[in-house]
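Bug #77: duplicate submission created two jobs. Keeping one. Sequence:
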Amino acid sequence: MNEDIHDSIFTKNIQRGLDKKIIKVENDGSKIIYYCKRNYSTSFKNPEERVRASYFCELVIDYDYQPKNIDIEVTVPRRTPEDRADIVVYDEDGAEYLVVECKKDGITDAEFKQAIEQVFGNANSLRAKFASVIAGITKTAFDVSGFKPNEREKNVISDIPKKYGKTPKYKFVKGYPYKELKEVSREELIRALEKSHDTVWQGGKLAPTTAFDEVSKLLFCKLRDEKITKKGEAYSFQIGTHESSEEIFKRIDVIYQKAKAEDSEVFKEDIKLEPRVVYSVVEHLQELAIGKIDLDTKGVAFERFMEDFFKGKMGQFFTPREIINFCVEIMNPERSDLVIDPACGSGGFLLNALDKVRKFSELNYDEMEAWENWHKFAMNNLYGIEINDQIARVCKMNMIIHDDGHTNIISTDSLKNIDEITKIHKGFKKAQFDILLTNPPFGAIVKSTEKDYLDKYELGKDKQNQKTEILFIERCLDFLKPNGKMAIVLPDGILTNSSLQYVRDFLIKKSQILAIVSLPQFAFTHFGAGVKSSLIFVRKKKEEETNNCPIFMAIAEHIGYDATGRKDAINDLNKIYDEYKKFEKDPKSYKGV
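Kept job's structure:
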């Protein structure tokens, strides 16, 4: 079972059905009984059965169809081989009215199309008015009786009628309880995103990263539609009765073009997908109230969704959550702090800093004050630079999913002259930031023949080439205010190689080293990098400051996941954090463990 299955739409519907006594589930969960036209008992272990049970409960509770007019597993005449309809709803005279085909959540588009053909075969044989295919949270209903037998688009309806009434033009209307979008669990959100990606990817027609870009555009439209639709209005991001894929595409594109005109930084290009592909993605996402899903659930879902596509291909842009959490806890950002990540990748450090401030606000202020507090922090205090334009867009999308802060993410080279970066965005200045959190790129070489900025670095002067991570140390200190603090991931070679003593001397001259935490060899292997690394925590010194303070040192052997990325119940970073807090109170008398 999924870890948050209790939050799923299916479980909520099934519980409603149990409360109304229209179904019964055996105590061990092995069997279900439907109290309908003829009481029907079957195994409850099949994931498809959960979908059927959930929809049966919806038909009775939300659509007002009487259980005595609903049958399960109905033999369909004139079908070879013999077929059975999952659910049949009869009208008050006993004639077949609606035929339903249920499939488990997460099936492919091809399997969904197959299910549509199956339900049409059954509906035509039974001469039913309506047909519906339910595959988890993807649902499509059809008006069967008024159209040619092979029609599959013009006869799509927004939803089945309620209690034999009229077909609604639109299913989802803002502010109407029974027509509102549904809050879903983390697993359901991940599956909806994955289905959308598979639809857009089209089995390899697009590169996975391009497909991700296109899904992000549509997700952006979905979130925007949820925000801008007024109470009493139908949402735009849905399929209405008898609407073509071209009509759907045009309506979604209107949302996109308006947003693009207002904020060209998020997406610079138009939606590149064919209308039929956009139509399928709308089918997958239309029912979800993504904006209402709590931020932690949404954040983890989007993170998991991203990792599936970029890990391995672009693993260097992802820092494991356990390491990010630890660094943010040590740095302890507050509402007034300006925070930067000059190699921000998908935005993990920045979003974790935002979560820290959000949770503090929610604990210490009333609801409105808290909301304002952390939103202002998101909009005004978080800054990121990412050299890869596509990943910068992923970061912006990640920020939007978390309720914003994307305006201060720029795509450029963090190592070029700071005044050039300031020209792109005036918020990025020398000695501007209170906290810096980063996992810079390792291993790349900057050659003086290729980059005119190398000799402008103290650590690059008179050198033919220099490693990016060494230049990053200097650049990060440039960005910090005096007394500003930094958490940075660095390869162990910088700390141990005798040839790099000059780098260590530079770091000690410019900053007070607060702590060094050695990470295991495998810390980044699952993310496409295998260099042995450590976390370095420093405070930038004021001019002419000299001091000789103790340094907190620790070795983490277990960090909450193993070399394959599987969860490990042991995480030494938690104990290291507790010890560091003791050290911080009185560094000189701290004895260690």
